[in-house]
Amino acid sequence: MAGDGDLKLLGLMVSPFVTRVRLALHMKGVGYEYIETDVLDKGELLLRYNPVHKKVPVLIHNGVPLCESQVIVQYVDEVWSAGAPILPADPYARATARFWAAYVDDKLFPAWLGILLAPTEAARAEKVDATLAALAQLEVAAAECLDGGRRPLFGGDSIGFLDLAVGCNMFWMEALRRMFGVTFLDAGRTPPAN
């Protein structure tokens, strides 16, 4: 299956997971057809191409589906070699990026999503604390990965796998700040890299 061919992406505009895949495709200069998908009223395409999880994103390459954003981004990186690589070449750096990307999906995403879905103020406060704790742990990793600010991105000088995993959640941090008045990212605590 070469890099050419019919390429479709089933997605939802507000999904950080879909954003991650769209950014990876853009980085590689790959054209595709985007199909906005109603995840509440699961359409025929979504049910056909992701019958297990029934969620987006789903990348359909020459009629063959790929599911789960991390898997899709790795596939995009392997199939389309144009542009900078998304995953590090070094096996340890690649494993580290995968570890922290999984952390973002398993800890950070559910925490901030819980803020939106919390039925009470007390439940929302618990999820705010969980989000802050997840971000604090991520800041520790960032200090190491960014080499004390000597590197601008997790991937070094170019956007990489972990940058996509973290970055696709950031627009929600601003939305949550505006909706609930909680500041998750504080430049005084986490200065930007030079």
Describe the fold and architecture:
It is a single chain. The protein has 194 residues and is α+β, with helices and mostly antiparallel strands. It has two domains: 7-79, Glutaredoxin; 91-180, Up-down Bundle (Glutathione S-transferase Yfyf (Class Pi), Chain A, domain 2). It contains six helices and four strands, in the order βαβαββαααα. The protein has helices at residues 16-27, 44-49, 69-79, 91-117, 121-145, 161-180, and strands at 7-11, 33-36, 58-61, 64-67. Strands 2-1-3-4 form a four-stranded mixed beta sheet. Helix 1 (16-27) links the parallel strand 1 and strand 2 (33-36). The longest helix is centred in the middle third of the chain and has 27 residues, at 91-117. The chain is globular. The model has no long low-confidence stretch (mean pLDDT 88).
> How would you classify the helix and strand content by structural class?
alpha+beta
Architecture per CATH nomenclature, i.e. the level-2 architecture of the largest domain: Up-down Bundle
CATH topology description of the largest domain: Glutathione S-transferase Yfyf (Class Pi), Chain A, domain 2
- State the name of the first-level CATH class of the largest domain: Mainly Alpha
Number of strands: 4
Over the alpha carbons, how many angstroms does the gyration radius reach? Answer: 17 Å
Average pLDDT confidence is 88
Determine the fraction of residues in helical runs and give it as a percent range: 40-55%
What is the domain total for the residues?
2
Number of helices: 6
